[in-house]
Amino acid sequence: MFKKDISAGSKSKVKSSAQRGIRAKILEQYPKLEEHIEEIMPKKEQLDLVKLPDRVALYTLGSTPLFFQHMDDPILPHLTIVHKYPDAFPRLRIDRGAIRFVLSGATLMAPGLTSPGGRLPNDPEDPEGRYGKEELEAGEVVVIEAEGKETACMVGVLTVGTAEMKKTKKGQACDAGHYLGDGLWGLTLG
Amino acid sequence: MAESVPKQITYCGVCSLPPEYCEFGGTVKKCEDWLKEHHPSLHGKLYSQEAIEQNLSTLSLEAQKRAEKDSQKKAAKAAASEARAQEQRDNSKVLIKRIERNKRKYVTAVQGLEAFGLDIKKVAKDFGKKFATGSSVTKIPGGGEEITVQGDLSDDIYDYVVETYKDIPEDNVECIEDKKKKAAG
Ligand SMILES: [Zn+2]
């Protein structure tokens, strides 16, 4: 979504009623953020909406980006939020070989997740369940971690469910919503 | 395993990514130097012989070769764009212009800072704070933007610019006077 460098468009204040709605929607999508949401998006602080190219809305607190949304698609967290609260989002892991493709904005392909270095839910190599115990459906938001790395490198929307991915082991897996070093990552907010 | 929440993450001062991802960019050497200076313990962890071998062992030989080629390409690209930026900086000038608006009323216009990678909106704000005066970004007829500061502050701005923005060589900063009327005497 942000393969190119972008610059921020107009900024406007989010009305408090709308702010409540956004907060509720975020919690509905990411219930594990419940205990952190007040810290991320304090009720008393003014949330701003910054317009980005291609009908993307970025929600910010001062000059800190928090979440973004393309039209009425799911709300996605900025990667700095993911880095702060890594346990709050469903996550998968790619193998080391796939990292450089993801960081160049390529669509994530299934083999990066199904190979020995990758992790999907219910992975025998993942007894603690870091990558979840339940299969994820197409359309769900996932955070992508990487083999040998502690921090996530991407957040996107699954194009194929994880159960199917395990069967076919090929094809596109996930839309590149936002990845390390992309236009959103490099965006400077006044 | 109680980790502190929110997790504190260090980001690379050179490429802005978490340092464990610096290896995929084109500025690895600079990134490594930065980390060594600012976060020595993290540097030790990420750039140890062991860590490097561990990284390599998870890739097939073929993939290693591809990755190596890829990173060479990236490094060359980064070096080229750095060279271009350097050339652009060498050839760019920051102009600080004293303009008489009314009798004995001056404004100071500053042009050319964006060529040195500065966000001029932010710089305008900083000028305003630093000199406690009005400072704004205005369009230049014919394209581009300049910072307009209220008051005759050429010399102060000169000093401030040279001192604050080390990337701008002093030779590239120039004070000029925009004489609309002939100066008295
Ligand atoms: Zn770096």
From TrEMBL, chain A:
Q: Which UniProt keywords apply?
A: Cytoplasm
Note the PANTHER family from the entry: MALIGNANT T-CELL-AMPLIFIED SEQUENCE 1 (PTHR22798:SF0), MCT-1 PROTEIN (PTHR22798)
Which Pfam families does the UniProt entry name for this protein? Answer: Pre-PUA, PUA
- Subcellular location as annotated: Cytoplasm
Q: Does the keyword Membrane apply?
A: no
Q: What is this protein called?
A: Translation machinery-associated protein 20
Q: Which residues form the PUA domain?
A: 90-181
Q: What family is this protein classified in?
A: Belongs to the TMA20 family.
Single GO BP term: formation of translation preinitiation complex
UniProtKB/TrEMBL annotation, chain B:
Where does it primarily localize? cytoplasm
Molecular function (Gene Ontology), one example: translation initiation factor activity
Q: Note whether Transferase occurs among the keywords.
A: no
InterPro entries the UniProt entry points to: DENR/SUI1_TIF, DENR_C, DENR_eukaryotes, DENR_N, SUI1, SUI1_dom_sf
Q: Which GO terms describe its cellular component?
A: cytoplasm; ribonucleoprotein complex; ribosome
Name where it's found: Cytoplasm
> A Pfam family in this protein?
SUI1
Recite the UniProt keywords alphabetically.
Cytoplasm, Ribonucleoprotein, Ribosomal protein
Q: Name one GO biological process term.
A: formation of translation preinitiation complex
Which family would the database say this protein is a member of? Belongs to the DENR family.
Give the domain section of the comments.
The SUI1 domain may be involved in RNA binding.
Q: How does it assemble?
A: Interacts with the 40S ribosomal subunit.
State the protein's name: Translation machinery-associated protein 22
* Native source species: Aaosphaeria arxii CBS 175.79
